Structures are given as C-alpha cells and as structure tokens.
C-alpha cells in the first residue's frame, strides 16, 4: 500500500473521473501513481499533459532502444511499479520482453544490439547516486542516434528517474499490469 493512499473514484470530481476513465481504457486500470497524485489536482494535470506531450515528441529513437533504457532506469532505482508498467508497455509495443530477464548482462548478452547496449549503459551512467556520463559516451551516442536522438534518450532517462524515484519514495509498488512470468523480472 502506498504511503499516501490513492484517491478513490468516489472522492473524485468530474475532471478526475474523466482522467481515470481515459487511463482505465488505455491501460486496463488506473495507474496507482496517477491516483496518488490526484490529491494535488494541479500536479496531476501537469503530469498528464507532460506525459502525453513527451510520448508524442519521442519518436526519433527506435522504440526498443528508448524502452530498454527507460526499463533499465526502473530496475536500477528499484521501482517495481515502473518495472511492471514498463514490461506491459513493451509487450503492447510488440517488443521482446523475454530478454528483459537478461538486462543485467546487457553488455555481453547477444540479446541486445550495439545501439541498445549504448543506450542502456547511458541509462546506468545517468541513474546512479552520482551522474557518471562521459564526453566519449555522449559522442558515441551522437554518432549512433544524432543530436536529437541523444536529447530524446537523455530526456526519457531523466523522466524515468523522476517517476521511479517518486514512486519509490511514496511506496508505490507493482500493480499487476503484467501477468504470468512477465512481472517476475528480477530486480538487481
């Protein structure tokens, strides 16, 4: 149970009920982080608009590269909700979720392409207690993805750091968006 309880539909006004309905149709359930943030309507509106705009704008990178980097952040921070939700999103995008079991071995696993390895290593460098990104790393990413691709990757990794850290701080845990073995992807 989260440290701040989710706002129930019975407590919601008309706009929040609309948000909940939209989220329920899109994801099959209202994401618990949304229902917790609903206690602050201004931040909820800002978060919903921001998430939709970031999703719409993030089309430079291949989906597998972007989603693996975001997933890596979730595992590094230890956000079980983000791992659960991210696995579901990858499955819905038709991406191979079986290889997520090998994310800790990304540097040597044949399950990951060179581009994916670069992105996941960058996620690692951005997600520690201290940011450890190097000039060489950014140059290599720019050669692979272009400037706009590096900016998109950086933005998405930073955004997931924010989500994962907030969810972890508030005690929001996996919600069951994935079924079967998919939600059993181990955290490091």
Fold and architecture overview:
The chain has helices spanning 14-27, 32-37, 41-57, 63-77, 80-92, 114-127, 135-169. The chain is mainly alpha-helical. The protein has two domains: 9-57; 63-184, AhpD-like.
CATH superfamily of the largest domain: AhpD-like
Strand count, sense and barrel status of the largest sheet are: none
Total strands? 0
Question: What is the CATH architecture term of the largest domain?
Answer: Up-down Bundle
Protein name: Carboxymuconolactone decarboxylase family protein
InterPro entries: AhpD-like, CMD-like
Domain Carboxymuconolactone decarboxylase-like: 50-124
GO molecular function, one term: peroxiredoxin activity
Provide key terms for this protein.
188 residues; mainly alpha; 2 domains; 7 helices; 61% helix; disordered C terminus
Gist of the model:
This protein is mainly alpha-helical. 61% of the residues lie in helices and 0% in strands.
Describe the secondary-structure layout.
Blueprint (H helix, E strand, L loop, with lengths): L13 H14 L4 H6 L3 H17 L5 H15 L2 H13 L21 H14 L7 H35 L19
């Amino acid at each position: 149970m989260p440290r701040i309880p989710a706002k129930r539909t019975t407590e919601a006004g008309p706009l929040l009920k609309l948000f909940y309905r939209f989220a329920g149709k899109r994801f099959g359930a209202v994401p618990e982080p949304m229902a917790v943030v609903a206690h602050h309507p201004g931040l909820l509106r800002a978060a919903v608009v921001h998430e939709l705009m970031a999703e719409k704008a993030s089309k430079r990178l291949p989906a597998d590269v972007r989603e693996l980097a975001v997933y890596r952040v979730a595992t590094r921070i230890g956000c079980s909700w983000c791992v659960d939700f991210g696995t579901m999103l990858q499955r819905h995008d038709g991406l191979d979720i079986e290889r997520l079991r090998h994310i800790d071995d990304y540097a040597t696993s044949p399950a990951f392409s060179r581009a994916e390895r670069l992105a996941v290593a960058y996620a690692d460098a951005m997600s520690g207690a201290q940011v450890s990104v190097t000039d060489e790393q950014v140059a290599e990413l720019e050669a692979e993805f272009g400037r706009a691709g590096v900016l998109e990757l950086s933005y998405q990794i930073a955004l997931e750091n924010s989500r994962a850290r907030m969810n972890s701080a508030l005690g929001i845990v996996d919600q069951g968006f994935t079924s079967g073995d998919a939600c059993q992807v181990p955290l490091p």
